[in-house]
Amino acid sequence: xxxxxxxxxxxxxxxxxxxxxxxxxxxxxxxxxxxxxxxxxxxxxxxxxxxxxxxxxxxxxxxxxxxxxxxxxxxxxxxxxxxxxxxxxxxxxxxxxxxxxxxxxxxxxxxxxxxxxxxxxxxxxxxxxxxxxxxxxxxxxxxxxxxxxxxxxxxxxxxxxxxxxxxxxxxxxxxxxxxxxxxxxxxxxxxxxxxxxxxxxxxxxxxxxxxxxxxxxxxxxxxxxxxxxxxxxxxxxxxxxxxxxxxxxxxxxxxxxxxxxxxxxxxxxxxxxxxxxxxxxxxxxxxxxxxxxxxxxxxxxxxxxxxxxxxxxxxxxxxxxxxxxxxxxxxxxx
Amino acid sequence: xxxxxxxxxxxxxxxxxxxxxxxxxxxxxxxxxxxxxxxxxxxxxxxxxxxxxxxxxxxxxxxxxxxxxxxxxxxxxxxxxxxxxxxxxxxxxxxxxxxxxxxxxxxxxxxxxxxxxxxxxxxxxxxxxxxxxxxxxxxxxxxxxxxxxxxxxxxxxxxxxxxxxxxxxxxxxxxxxxxxxxxxxxxxxxxxxxxxxxxxxxxxxxxxxxxxxxxxxxxxxxxxxxxxxxxxxxxxxxxxxxxxxxxxxxxxxxxxxxxxxxxxxxxxxxxxxxxxxxxxxxxxxxxxx
Lengths: 334, 289
Ligand SMILES: Cc1cc2nc3c(=O)[nH]c(=O)nc-3n(C[C@H](O)[C@H](O)[C@H](O)COP(=O)(O)OP(=O)(O)OC[C@H]3O[C@@H](n4cnc5c(N)ncnc54)[C@H](O)[C@@H]3O)c2cc1C
Ligand SMILES: Nc1ncnc2c1ncn2[C@@H]1O[C@H](COP(=O)(O)O)[C@@H](O)[C@H]1O
Description:
With 334 residues, chain A is an alpha/beta fold. Chain A has helices at residues 16-27, 61-69, 88-97, 111-124, 209-213, 231-240, 248-252, 283-286, 305-309, 318-333; strands spanning 2-5, 51-56, 72-78, 103-108, 128-136, 139-144, 149-153, 159-164, 180-183, 199-201, 216-220, 243-246, 273-277, 294-299, 312-315. Chain A starts with a strand and ends with a helix.
């Protein structure tokens, strides 16, 4: 049995990366060393190869239906006043409480997923493998060295604890089931609450809907140079009626908000055209743009992966090139 | 507040890599070395926090003798001293081994009178990306742990009670004396930590001692000064030998991605190629009328 930690958003819907993890679980029944029942549930053991989900906090009816369509047979729903504010230790223990002794425990490789699986691995005395992208008879395969290489590894132990790299697979529906939902009475230890979130300072909502629905996305990376270097890029976005997407370097440096990040730990986009400006093409970035129908690169380095993977490329300084493109667009509009 | 920062020597990779003869390691003979940007930010946070509280910063690495270069680089920007746990090839260790080794060294330093109120790590190392050494270390030390933290600051008072509570004030905590020869426990101060969560910036308050894993982005790491570089050459580095791997790495081998055949059409160089690009955009049909 594979138990997947399913993240839900503020309206209780399943996040895209969690839908991916569930799909990965369902399509890789060989993940499991052995089937087994969740420890706290009465009755017969679930069939080996089944996929179950664990949700903490908000769970909407439509999320239950979606998990059913993704092939989840049982949903463990954990709700407790002490779990309302996120605390990694307390959430991990709640997950561990319903984790079978053998099988696979997994989450998507989001910050929460990474953190919870690491805590759960320690608490169950198991190893953990982060950012897994594939699994076969030869063991697990995961991203290392920032995606420039993969590590082939084998976990021992009866319980495998793993995270799935974001966008390593696409959510796929199957014959819908009507998942059973189990609710639990939990004990939350005071000691596990010292690391809870004391308050959240909401920023401009992390809303990426404009980015994921745009037909044209202009991507901007470190090559932009500074926080003040987005002028031409934003003008081009405007000309195309599109959206801006950025690399993690750009969000990491605080140049642009996280909602605009594209890639493994950001949005996955599928526009008609993606124009990547000053982006090298790291695997974690490419993971977010596989769905782009046409890929155009503007980069000073002809050898950059992004250029090599593009359909079209211009070699040169992005500021100069985009300024000229903007001018040309204005000229043609007359 | 005395702070320990764990840093890892990793190859500085730009572009593609090759494997060594064993197939289990990257051939780093022609590459420079560095530490991850998360760890650079952790060092910067440690320097700022130690300065605000009148404490010290120690950097620790488990790695080959050459990793002393990364320790000295951290001293050059403001750390006080370093600890090298020598392991010719750290890739034979599992993350749980590394956490155990660091935990043992921390306990050993405590016996020798050097205690740490706060231990910082990166979220993940740039090479293995295991995302767990900080968390495993915290469990080994029986300290609470936060991850994904971008900024920290020492605050007055206690950790406070419910949701809205928490420590207040921006004053510095007095220099911690680290207790009576043991590992610091209690009374070492309170840290307010911030990181980005799914719904905005999350704020935590945590009584020390604790482990905090840092995510880049909250601070700009400083560059070394001339005097810093001079100091780095003479900085005290305590040395340990790593034990044999306990658990051992689960790695079977490394694999490299397939090199894909490129089918790119180069439209040209520089601004002169702009019309060709606009032609393509018109053809795709994404130009606003
Ligand atoms: C677990 C994990 C998750 C990650 N998730 C993501 C993610 O979701 N999204 C993501 O993007 N990254 C992610 N990353 C980071 C990723 O590995 C890369 O570090 C990042 O994508 C690089 O960003 P970049 O291309 O902007 O910068 P760089 O790699 O530094 O590339 C800059 C590029 O700009 C070019 N350039 C420089 N100056 C100019 C100029 N004037 N004009 C034109 N071109 C110029 C350079 O030739 C180079 O190709 C993740 C990494 C890890 C380990
Ligand atoms: N060999 C090492 N020496 C010192 N610190 C390490 C070592 N390996 C990991 N760390 C620390 O633990 C963090 C997480 O590493 P990892 O779990 O391997 O991804 C890193 O960012 C470092 O701060």
